[in-house]
Amino acid sequence: MFYSIHDIVPLIPCHYSIYLHKFRFVDIKLDHLQKVVDESGKNTPTLKNLKILFGLMWDYAVMHEIVPQDKRDMIRYIDISKPGNPNSYNREPFRKKEVQMLWDAKDSNIYMSVILILIYTGLRIGELLDLKKEDVHLNERWFFVRESKTSSGIREVPIAEKIVPFFEYWIKQDCEYLICTPNNEHFLYRNYYDSYWTPLMKSLSFKHRPHDTRHSCISLLTEAGVDERVIKKIVVHKGQGVTETVYTHLELPIKLEAINKI
User: Fold this and answer.
1) CA distances from 155 to 14, 113, 260 (A)
2) How far is Cα 121 from Cα 153, in angstroms, rounded to an integer?
3) What is the number of other CB atoms lying within 10 angstroms of the CB of residue 237?
4) Is 122 in a helix, a strand, or coil?
5) Quick one: residue 78, left, alpha or beta (phi over 0 = left, psi -120 to 50 = alpha)?
6) From CA 158, how far away is CA 145, in angstroms rounded?
7) DSSP per-residue codes, 128-144
8) What pLDDT score was predicted for residue 14?
9) Distances (CA, A) of 233 to 131, 150, 217, 220
10) Would the pLDDT of 11 be above 70?
């Protein structure tokens, strides 16, 4: 019987299995799995989890006599000692000339506005894609990051006056999330990155990753003379509990003044 990798684990993330899916399960070799690891761009904890996942998959395959035991043994030889940690890439902030090019091109594609929003808020791309309209307080020029990579990332973020029109546009769209697909659906990172970020970067001959926008915000604030402590409160701030949320809200005028300097 023909078994592919998706017959074993239907929900394995596509960015791991896209290379493997063309093989019959019994034909997958150590070199194939090592290639997935080497080209994943993931950090050590993620690669450990991936290796565990492969182990569980091959356990299942042995148990159901899809592959022999010696095929299961190959999993322990997968080398995850040289992770391609995406956080270790050299970050290259957008140059001022490039930021201006984004502004000049903003009317050519509404998703140009997403890049500018990232630059002028310092958000991680995941934070922006998961931002719901209910957490946006446009009249007061701030929004609340409720979903973040870390607990310390929960924070209030000021909205610079120059990007208010972008927020106004996206709020009018029929979706509970601020940024949505053309079909008014929630964006998955891979969908946004492949369908919009990459093509837009190519159209402008840029070579930037989404995280470069965060470093651009920090660089612009620093160049504008904003105090480092204020920059940290904008980009990342502890927001645990009601007391701290109220406290940070008292700092909002300071944050707004700072973000409007760039």
Assistant:
1) 32, 22, 18
2) 13
3) 19
4) coil
5) beta
6) 11
7) HHT-BGGGEEGGGTEEE
8) 47
9) 18, 14, 13, 15
10) no
Mean pLDDT of the chain: 84
Split at pLDDT 50, 70, 90, the class of 22 is: confident
Among 53-57, 218-222, 238-242, name the one with the lowest average pLDDT.
Answer: 238-242
Share of the chain residues as helix, strand and coil, in percent rounded to the nearest 5: 55, 5, 35
Tell me the backbone φ, ψ of residue 225, rounded to 5 degrees: 85, 20
Residue 146, both tokens: 């409720």
Helix (H) or strand (E) holding 60: helix 44-63
Token pair, residue 34, equals 């090592």
Tokens 């926008």 belong to 213
For the segment 225-242, the average pLDDT, to the nearest whole number, is 73
Q: Which of 230, 218, 206 is nearest to 120 (CA)?
A: 218
- 158: helix, strand or coil: strand
Please report, in angstroms and rounded to a whole number, the separation of the first and last CA atoms in the chain. 62
Which DSSP category does 67 fall into? S
**pLDDT above 80 for 248:** no
Max CA pair span of the chain: 67
H/E stretch holding 166? helix 164-171
- With a cut of 80, say whether residue 26 has pLDDT above it: yes
pTM value surpassing 0.90: no
